[in-house]
Amino acid sequence: MTLNYQDVMTADLSSLADASGAWKKMGERFGELKTDYEKHVQGVLGNGNWQGLAYGAQQQNASATTFEYGAAKAEALAIASLLADAHAELTRLQKAVKDLVHDAEAKDFKVDSSGKATYVGYDNLSEQEKYALHHDPDYAQLQSDARVKAQGWTDDIAKAVKAVDDADQSVKRALVRATSDVSTDGLGFGGFNAHAVGDLAKAGKPDPKTTTKTDGWVSDGESEASGPGVGTEVSGPDTGAGKLGEAEAHADLGRASAEGSLTNGPFKLAGEAEAYAGAKVSAAGGITNEGLQGEASVFAGGEASAKGRADAGFVGLYGRPETMAGAEAGVNAGIGLEGLNAGAEAFAGAKGGLSGGADIGGIGAGGTLEGWAGAGAEADATLGKGEDGKWKVGATVGVAVGLGGEVGFEFTVDPGKIADTAGDAADAIGDTAHAIGSLF
Fold first, then answer.
1. Where is the composition biased (Basic and acidic residues) (predicted)?
2. CA separation, residue 233 to residues 71, 205, 289, 295, 428 (Å)
3. Strand partners, 235
4. pTM for this structure?
5. Domain boundaries, the chain
6. Residue % of the chain over a pLDDT of 70
């Protein structure tokens, strides 16, 4: 959630310092537990009087438990440090916003609940002074100057608020990373994070995005990982946007994603991959001047997908392998100026499938094929414009009781690419005509 002006002005940051102290005590206590466990459990049973397979299994598990106590200490102390850094940084930035507002008000500018400044210096004038001011030949210019200065204060306050939000997002990233165990040491994934970083400046940096050049090829990519975690989000209604409301809840064991591309002139290779494990449920609906839309879904289990694309000029190929294990159900429907869609699904088990196709000059065709092991049914139909700007016509149908599957097709039309192709063709024809003309 993005922080707004009111959030920044009314936030009580003292709890961050209190939480930091509590986490520090917790970390120290985990250290004491580690010492006690090593001495009174692991050490006592390892005195040489107990031998055999059972002893070996016990010691292996005891070593893992000892490691996790140490990892818990490292994670708790890192979080304590991050919260202390967060308290200091957010307090500093919050004060900067409040100082700006104070300075603006000292110069007769009123700042409303959204952070917008308005000049109110004329409100304190007497009626006679107001009359003289309104008949001043420079009155229009004075009004214009006041509006410009007010906008300057508004912009400065907005920048200061954004600085607080940026810092808040940095704290969020750092805390997520500190509580995410992505190494195989100890008890493996999902334990305490023995490698948690307690420096906000380091741990809160945005996910890296790199660009390199090799032999004419330009690479661009980024990745992200998080979990475990739980959360909920509710918004709406928003009458201005025509949104009735949205609600979402999730309990994530973990999620990861990556994407990248290689480009060299007209040649481009691009790919994306993502994986998720956990449970999530969502519902949304809206009515706008462009149509009606509603959907609801629930999922529990694990899923992974990847997609790749290769383009050479106006010819492209694409493929999308996907897998899923778990249970899911959903329904969606919509109608509007940019097409219609409808579908429903319910499935429990495992899926594996592949989609692929090709497009030439912005017109494409492809198909999907999935194998199912479980029980369920699914149907979907689409005719309309997608988020990528392409118009799509497609349908899928599938059923399984034990073993089964799904088949489908899709046709796409990319108006932008068609226009580019037509333009390139026209340029080529013009160049050819010019070359031929130059021969005579």
1. 202-212
2. 31, 24, 26, 16, 53
3. 246
4. 0.50
5. 5-178, 259-276+300-430
6. 55
Q: What is the pLDDT of residues 398-439, one digit of tens each?
A: 665 566 667 776 777 776 666 565 555 555 445 544 544 554
Residue 217 has pLDDT above 80, yes or no: no
Q: Please name the amino acid found at residue 389.
A: G
Enter the tokens of residue 199. 């420096």
Q: Look at residue 253 in the predicted model and tell me its pLDDT.
A: 61
pLDDT of 428: 47
Paired sense of beta strands 229-235 and 217-226, if any: unpaired
**DSSP annotation of 389:** S
Q: What distance in Å separates the CA atoms of residue 338 and residue 418, rounded to the nearest whole number?
A: 18
Distance CA 181, CA 76 (A): 13
pLDDT at 36 over 70: yes
Burial class of residue 105 in the structure, from the number of CB atoms within 10 Å of its CB (0-12 exposed, 13-18 middle, 19+ buried):
middle
| Whole-angstrom distance, CA of residue 425 vs CA of residue 417 | 12
User: What gap in Å lies between CA 151 and CA 157, rounded to an integer?
Assistant: 10
CA–CA separation, 391 and 414 (whole Å) = 6
DSSP per residue, 5-65: HHHHHH--THHHHHHHHHHHHHHHHHHHHHHHHIIIIIHHHTSSS--SHHHHHHHHHHHHH
Provide the b/e sequence for 167-195 (b: ≥16 CB within 10 Å).
bbebbebbbbbbbbbeeeebeeeebbbbe
Contact 406, 378 (CB under 8 A): yes
Nearest to 20 by CA among 180, 200, 206: 200
Count of CB atoms situated within 10 Å of the CB of 152: 13
* Six token digits for residue 318: 């694409």
d(CA 35, CA 57): 21
Chain segment 149-205, per-residue pLDDT in tens: 989 999 999 999 999 999 999 999 999 989 888 777 766 667 888 888 999 998 888
Give me the residue label for tokens 């409040």: 98
* Better-scored residue on pLDDT, 306 or 40: 40
What percentage of the chain's residues is helix, strand, coil (to nearest 5)? Answer: 40, 40, 20
Give the count of beta carbons closer than 10 Å to the beta carbon of residue 136.
11
Quickly tell me which residue has 């055999």 as its tokens: 52
